Amino acid sequence: MYKMVRMEDTIRIPPNLFKEDLNEVIEDIVHKTFEGRYKKDYGVIVVTDNIEPVGEGVVIHGDGALYQRVSFDALVFMPVLQEIVDGIVCEVVEFGAFCHIGPLDALVHMSQIMNDFIEVDIDNERLIGKETKRALSVGSTIRARIVAVSMNELSPRESKIGLTMRQPALGAHEWIEEDRKKEAKKEEEAEKKGKKKKKKEKKK
């Protein structure tokens, strides 16, 4: 889940940057310090913007650096259990597929891809349903539900997130569209049969 929040924290400005434009220095340090970092109760900070110094900075004796309080807007991403997310397959392995969901990667285990026996084609980076012939490959766009989350606060990109696509309206986007068209066709045929039945009853 993405959301925009306002944050406040302290940054360290080293003495060798005192001659530079302070506002530019503050913005650069905030970007480098916080983007990609995990913030408890918020999630992974994706982008920072509207950065402002708060009050005057303090020089710590024996350090020489300026410690400046800053506030900024942050776009954060927090994976939430049972949330439906869209992603893109970035790697196919023997036991499933890794997918980009926002700034993080998640795993769709082999058992959670489809209701079919799956054949692995590592050379062509594909997972293929034996009966349905549906294929999942690098670059495929998917819709899945988050079923497991274990965040690594020190290294967010190493967090473990599990997905499932074995539920209605989930799977590769092309599969979802195929199923939608099939369902629409069934409804259309059922409607035609219903009309024919009514006509026959009227004739009687």
Structural summary, described in words:
This protein has helices at residues 22-34, 173-203, and strands at residues 2-13, 38-39, 43-59, 66-77, 84-93, 96-101, 104-109, 118-121, 126-129, 135-137, 141-150, 160-164, 171-172. The chain is 22% helix and 46% strand. The protein folds into two domains: 2-77, RNA polymerase Rpb7-like, N-terminal domain (Dna Ligase, domain 1), CATH 3.30.1490; 83-178, Nucleic acid-binding proteins (OB fold (Dihydrolipoamide Acetyltransferase, E2P)), CATH 2.40.50.140. It is built from two helices and 13 strands. Strand 8 (118-121) and strand 9 (126-129) form a beta hairpin. The chain has 204 residues and is α+β, with helices and mostly antiparallel strands. The strands form three sheets. The chain has a five-stranded mixed β-barrel. A four-stranded antiparallel sheet has the order 1-4-3-2. A three-stranded antiparallel sheet has the order 8-9-10, with no helix packed on it.
